[in-house]
Specification:
By secondary structure, the chain is an alpha+beta fold. It is built from three helices and ten strands; from the N terminus they run E-E-H-E-H-E-E-E-E-E-E-E-H. A hairpin with a 3-residue loop joins strand 1 (3-9) and strand 2 (13-19). The longest helix has 27 residues, at 185-211. It starts with a strand and ends with a helix.
Length: 212
């Protein structure tokens, strides 16, 4: 009989024991947990002012790699949103703004200065460095985060690591998932199981159509 059993769990990592689950399904779940569960990441950055030494492209790249807390119950992936527009809507896109103001001293701008229009969609940590400013320099920008998957770009990876190892018992494996901070580990695994189920169902439908 197939089963899943939680071995250990904390805020950043979770391990579960998989019993009597075929290797191909277990490994598919591992891959989905790594880069197949949708999470938020900053995708578009509008630079209003940037007098720092970091080029606009470098600033946008850094913002894109900031892990963003994600709520999968309230937002849609753009391709599945009813709005079906390039600009997006409040159901599939969230704006974040940053305005450092001018400073009289050297200063490191952290993610705590990145303000989101939605309190649930914000950086997973307030202490991630974005850019270093010298006296008189300023950064002002607007950026937009959306749901995406790591298969599209690594900034949408839901996990830092997802490993699958055998135990000393037959037909038993350990899946360990470490989150980037966008979702908690339990949410990643539950969403991964759901995604796997959808994928298997869609594949079966395709096979049935070929038989016809």
């Amino acid at each position: 009989m197939s089963s899943l059993e939680i071995i250990s769990k904390d805020e950043s990592k979770m391990s579960i024991k998989l019993k009597n689950i075929p290797l191909q399904y277990a490994n598919a779940l591992r891959r989905i947990c790594l880069n197949g569960v949708p999470v938020f990441a900053i995708d578009t950055v509008d630079i209003i002012e940037n007098s720092s030494v970091l080029p606009d492209e470098g600033l946008a790249h850094r913002l894109g790699l900031v892990p963003i807390k994600t709520d999968l119950t309230r937002f849609n992936e753009p391709s599945k949103c009813e709005c079906q527009t390039e600009t997006g809507c409040s159901n599939c896109k969230v704006m974040l703004v940053l305005d450092s103001g001018e400073t009289d001293v050297s200063k490191t701008i952290l993610t705590d200065e990145l303000t989101s229009e939605d309190d649930s969609i914000k950086p997973s940590s307030d202490k991630i460095p974005i850019v270093q400013l010298a006296p008189g320099q300023r950064v002002k920008l607007e950026c937009y985060a959306r749901l995406g998957r790591g298969r599209e770009h690594a900034k949408w990876n839901s996990s830092n690591i997802a490993t699958l190892v055998d135990t000393d018992k037959e037909n038993e494996k350990i899946l360990t998932v470490e989150t980037t901070g966008a979702l908690n580990p339990e949410e990643i695994i539950l969403a991964g199981v759901e995604e796997l189920g959808k994928g298997i169902g869609e594949f079966k439908d395709m096979v049935e159509q070929l038989k016809e």
